[in-house]
Amino acid sequence: MAWTWLTLAGLFEIGWAIGLKYTDGFTRLVPSVLTALSMVVSVLLLGLALKTLPVGTGYAVWTGIGTVGTALLGIHLFGEPATVMRLVCIGLIVSGILGLKLASG
After folding, report:
1. Can you give the residue ranges of every domain in the chain?
2. Is the Cα torsion angle 17, 23, 27, 31 positive or negative in sign?
3. Which of 29, 44, 70, 95 lies 20 to 30 angstroms, CA to CA, from 6?
4. Structure confidence by residue, pLDDT tens digits, 24-58
């Protein structure tokens, strides 16, 4: 169950990272509230996952999911560059996440 909590925490991390773009410096109420809520949910779910998982593994996977998801959505939603080097680096992060999952059982 810890890996489920951790995956959901990472998805909410993507939500708040992307949400920051829509808050316009926290001047827009609805995006700001949704972003703050997503931050809280993400950290709470991470806390649940860390009851069982090692903190280093949990934190690395949480930030990795957030990083990969935010980078890919940045490319899709905001027209950020999708260079070969950038995509290779995103792939390396995914490899690291999978490696940590395999190493922790």
Report:
1. 2-104
2. negative
3. 29
4. 999 999 999 999 999 999 999 999 999 999 999 99
